[in-house]
Amino acid sequence: MFVEDAVVIRSDLVTCSTKSHANIISQKTGIDPEKVALIPLGTELPDLNIVRSTSGSEPPFPKPMVLFIGRIERRKGIHTLIEAIPAIMREISGVHFVIIGRDTYVDEHVVSFQGSDRNSFKSALIRKLPEECRKNVHFLGYVDPELIPRYMYHCDVFAAPSLYESFGQVYIEAMSYEKPVVGCRTGGVPEVVEDKKTGLLVDTDNPAQLADAIISLLKDKDYAIAMGIAGRCSVEEKFTRKKMAERTLKAYEMVLNKRIL
Question: Do the beta carbons of residue 156 and residue 63 sit within 8 Å?
Fold first, then answer.
């Protein structure tokens, strides 16, 4: 960490994807804020007409469908979603939860991608689920990236209640598919997801708030559709790969010009 801080301090420019992360870097290293360039991450915009034509009319699981994509670990907030599921199922009949991401194994506070079922985070989550809920919760593990568009297209709500994200790439990816997203007020997420416009934000580690947010979107389809469209517009305006490249080039040119002068 000392070496990393030393490199940051001696750099002509430091790039960060959100103001939240930039503030943390500045406070930690004491670097001049003017040496920090804000460059939000970008994503490739899917052609929604192609996605519709290739995803098929039949969803991979019954609808309504709530989608989560992320590692199966505490930091990603999957435990909060699992704890919220019984309340959601009491309000929304037949809702299914599709969970995509590699399992992790916790052994004496060390997290890895290999281990025994005894240390499996996924197994611990399943044990917490009431028996009557388990048939509606689908852990798919790792999924080929080429298949992700089908799940994005067919889901009704994308939920990723991470305990912390410096940016949250997964939110702009879901928003690019015109999906309403649910995240948490933490790190840089509020700079990516505009609460009540492109998504809903809740407190971290709060299953009741998470359940209420998901229920509200599943009950009000018009609201969810409008939020998804607003999310796509936000990505087009601020979070494309082209925008990220343009901002990066501008920041580099600024540093080089200062060096020349």
Answer: yes
